[in-house]
Design brief:
The complex is a heterodimer of chains A (about 230) and B (about 525). Chain A is built from ten helices and five strands; from the N terminus they run ββαβββααααααααα. A five-stranded mixed β-sheet of chain A has the order 2-1-5-3-4, with helices on one face. In chain A, helix 4 crosses helix 7 and helix 5 packs across helix 7. Chain A starts with 5 loop residues before the first strand and ends in a 6-residue tail after the last helix. Chain B has about 525 residues and is α/β, with parallel strands linked by helices. Helices cover about 30% and strands about 20% of the residues of chain B. Chain B has 16 helices and 23 strands. In chain B, strands 4, 5, 9, 10, 11, 12, 20 and 22 form an eight-stranded mixed β-sheet that branches. In chain B, strands 14, 15, 16, 17 and 18 form a five-stranded antiparallel β-sheet that branches. A three-stranded antiparallel β-sheet of chain B has the order 6-8-7. In chain B, helix 4 links the parallel strand 4 and strand 5. At the A-B interface, helix 1, helix 7, helix 8, helix 9 and helix 10 of A face helix 5, helix 6, helix 7, helix 8 and helix 14 of B.
Chain lengths: ~230, ~525
């Protein structure tokens, strides 16, 4: 096999030589760390692994998810394993999906200065500033869809000069949308009531009484929705 | 980015694509399925299992990596610990902050109980957040709990505990409604109809989804609600041993603060284990789709106090884990990719298995194609994979389908320079789900008084095989059931003095059964070096 290509990275300022093929997360482990913080799903879903880096010789600070990003030569890295973002408490049942909700719970969104640092930083490539603008206008459905792929890594909030906790705003908008703005599913409510009233008990009990052979016969001949 | 060799091979896939489109590949007969499973499914590989030499399941076979942890020393062996002054004293202690733990916490709190959630990583860093495909529930007019029951039992080869399967399907629509009312954004049509699809082994389209972020959407809503209800949740504090009281009832747990390495005692009237799966034990050397904390801790804790394991020898390997690029090796390629029409192909660009066979059969067929018939594609990590022809999806359903229905997949591959709309991807089975676990009843109770289990750590609901979408359902249904029951039951609990005698007894049993080892369990965190020591 060909020699492995290696690169130098700097973890908290210390240099380590690691295979170029690794993700930042794997490279930290290769370097000898046993990760405790900064590692969750290892698949880009949980946002535990937000990482800040700069490439040697360049000025720009970049942010990424370390489980989804390959190492590069000369990376200076630090993890952002915890972000002390502010979450407001609320009782969803008592809220109404009007713009007032945001004014009460997250008034700082109206101090957005339009710098777009949040959008530039988002590792999910979401239009963060745009979804905050939707929230400002009380257009929660749009905010919900535009923020849907958020993994709450907190990088946006860490870059915001207006102290906005964007990911919490998106979450609130999504919950309002899911509960109040999305069309109601009538048959779901009906089915739950039927079950509560015991309408399905007998059919289920009859199934449970069947022997394995009877079940097999039923199963193998059941009609399957196209 | 594909290597030059792979690029060459992709040409063969492209060459056969138009001709494959529209030609149906035959499903296997029951005999053919049996044959490929016995010859290639990892569950049939004897060397992967070992009979336990102590405890309730003595003599039963479990994966060797799990046996190693069950036949290991307690972290607390020889540790002096003062149990009389607990750091936490609550009604309900919930161990594990995934979907099952969060659902339990909400229900127990709703019943007035004082709840503490302790979890290994952060609240929500769990298998739940990774679930992509969807959640089942028999809510549509042409569906019913009885039909769902039939599918669950058939999928589990009729080995499931009937009462558990019945509870699962009966509570299904209620679980979907509960999530909907908490603000989970299910995919819906304009008239409120949920967008539902089939999963392997379903007779009705009852898979509800939130794009391919279903678990993430559920988890972030539940976490938010736990925080809104001011439920105390402590991160980075795994339980490393259960505590009993003088009557042998569950009475709390010993926690390890991962930052300070201190042990802390949590006393509780009832305890719910919701610690999830075991993928990070890498049975038989398989990569895994599971989160970093999936190390079967709950099974070890429960087993040490005498709770029974069921179906611990049945593991679900998902047929399509990422085989390449190496950076995301083992990560999941959701079943939805095949539901939408992508088919598995060998090195010659030929299909070799019907694309919607059940997971066990599809996984075995892929292993056979690679190692039985030598028709796999070599990857730079010394492994093999087969093609999954994703460009077919948009040929069938139209342009834009992938971006709309599989945004997570598209993004994951794009980060590594692969566009799955244009090129096929390389897949190989990945260790995905633990079908069995600690035996529960329909309220989540174990045979140990006041000890409950919910979620992937529990066993019996799915028998020997779980269907896609029934796990997200089970964590909600049984998380809620366990939380509700424990939240009520704690009122009548009078705790006696706390003890760790069972740990000493277990140590003695280890010695008596001739196990000599310096292994320590639970594992808590896996340890990876990515080949550093081989260099
Ligand atoms: C990639 C992927 C995709 C999936 N897709 C689907 C799907 O589409 N549909 C479906 O139905 N199912 C799916 N599943 C399965 C399903 O998501 C899981 O089985 C389910 O979410 C498990 O929930 P849980 O709450 O039991 O465990 P988890 O969500 O894993 O939560 C367990 C929690 O306990 C913590 N913990 C572990 N040990 C300890 C300890 N000692 N002390 C304290 N805390 C501890 C863990 O860190 C974790 O936070 C998928 C699973 C994976 C991995
Ligand atoms: S570890 Fe979950 S996003 Fe990286």
């Amino acid at each position: 096999m060909a020699e492995k290509e290696m690169v130098d990275i700097y973890l908290l300022g210390k240099r380590y030589t690691v295979p170029a093929s690794l993700t930042i997360m794997d490279a930290m482990e290769y370097a000898g760390y046993q990760l405790v913080r900064g590692c969750g799903c290892r698949s880009g879903f949980c946002g535990a692994c937000a990482t800040i880096y700069r490439i040697k010789g360049q000025k720009e600070l970049k942010v990424c998810l370390s489980c989804q990003t390959k190492v590069e030569d000369g990376m200076y890295l630090a993890q952002l394993p915890f972000f002390p973002g502010d979450k407001r408490e609320y009782n969803l049942d008592e809220l109404k999906p009007t713009a007032d909700v945001m004014k009460q719970l997250y008034p700082e969104i109206y101090s957005c200065i339009g710098c777009n640092a949040c959008t530039k930083a988002c590792p999910q490539e979401l239009k963060v500033m745009q979804y905050i603008a939707f929230a400002q206008r009380g257009d929660f459905e749009k905010c919900a869809h535009a923020s849907f792929d958020c993994v709450s890594c907190g990088i946006c909030a860490s870059r915001c000069p207006a102290q906005i906790t964007h990911y919490q705003v998106g979450l609130l908008a999504r919950r309002l949308t899911g509960k109040y703005l999305a069309p109601e599913t009538g048959y779901l409510t009906d089915r739950v009531r039927e079950i509560e009233q015991g309408e399905h008990d007998q059919a289920l009990a009859e199934m449970m009484d069947k022997s394995a052979d009877e079940m097999k016969a039923l199963y193998n001949t059941r009609d399957i929705e196209k | 980015m594909f290597t030059a060799e792979m690029r060459e091979l992709i040409k063969k896939v492209e060459a056969t694509r138009t001709q494959r489109l529209g030609t149906a590949f035959p499903r296997m007969s029951p005999e053919e399925k049996d044959e490929v499973l016995k010859a290639y499914h990892p569950d049939y590989r004897e060397s992967g299992f070992r009979a336990l030499s102590l405890g309730v399941n003595r003599g039963d076979k479990v994966p060797v990596e799990l046996a190693d942890l069950l036949e290991a020393n307690s972290r607390l062996a020889g540790q002096p610990l003062d149990l009389s002054r607990p750091a936490y004293d609550v009604d309900v202690l919930i161990v594990g902050g995934g979907g099952a733990g969060a659902a339990a916490a909400l229900e127990a709190t709703a019943r007035g109980a004082k709840v503490l959630v302790v979890t290994k990583l952060r609240l929500g860093d769990a298998n739940t957040v990774m679930a992509e495909g969807g959640i089942q529930g028999a809510d549509k007019p042409d569906d019913s709990p009885a039909l769902h029951y039939l599918d669950v039992m058939g999928g589990g080869h009729y080995t499931n505990k009937k009462e558990l399967a019945a509870a699962l399907v009966k509570d299904g629509p209620g679980a979907i409604k509960w999530l909907n009312d908490l603000g989970v954004m299910f995919d819906k049509e304009k008239d409120g109809t949920m967008v539902t699809t089939h999963g392997g082994g379903t007779s009705r389209k009852r898979m509800h989804a939130a794009a391919d972020y279903t678990g993430a959407e559920i988890m972030r809503v539940l976490r938010d609600e736990v925080q809104n209800r001011r439920i105390e949740a402590i991160d980075f504090s795994p339980a490393v041993e259960l505590i009993l009281d003088a009557d042998g009832k569950a009475a709390g747990a010993v926690l390890l603060n991962l930052e300070t390495q201190e042990y802390l005692v949590a006393r509780a009237k009832t305890v719910i284990l919701a610690t999830g799966g075991a993928g990070r034990l890498h049975y038989q050397g398989f990569p895994t789709s599971n989160h970093y904390g999936a190390t079967a801790d709950g099974l070890v804790l429960g087993y040490r106090v005498g709770a029974e394991l069921v179906f611990a020898d049945t593991i679900q390997y998902h047929p399509t884990g990422v085989a390449y690029p190496a950076q995301i090796f083992g990560a999941l390629v959701t079943e939805k990719v095949r539901s939408l029409g992508a088919t598995p192909l060998n090195i010659d660009g030929e299909q070799f298995v019907y694309h919607l066979e059940t997971r066990d059969v599809a996984a075995a067929a892929i292993i056979r194609e690679c190692y039985g018939r030598n028709k796999g594609i070599q990857t730079p990590t010394e492994g093999q994979g087969v093609w999954l022809d994703t460009p077919l999806i948009e040929m069938i359903h139209g342009e834009g389908t992938i971006e709309k229905r599989l945004p997570g997949m598209l993004r994951m591959y794009r980060k590594f320079g692969i566009d799955l709309r244009k090129d096929p991807i390389l897949v190989y089975p990945t260790l995905h789900y633990q079908n069995g676990g600690l035996l529960i009843d329909e309220h989540g109770r174990t045979s140990i008084p006041n000890l409950y289990v919910a979620g992937e750590a529990a066993g019996g609901i799915h028998g020997r095989n779980r269907l896609m979408g029934n796990s997200l359902l089970d964590i909600i249904v049984f998380g809620r059931r366990a939380g509700a029951h424990a939240g009520e039951a704690c009122r009548n609990v009078r705790l006696k003095a706390l003890t760790l005698d069972h740990v000493a007894k277990y140590q003695q049993a280890l010695a008596d059964s001739g196990v000599v080892t310096d292994r320590v369990s639970p594992l808590v965190l896996p340890h990876y070096t990515h080949g550093r020591h081989e260099d």
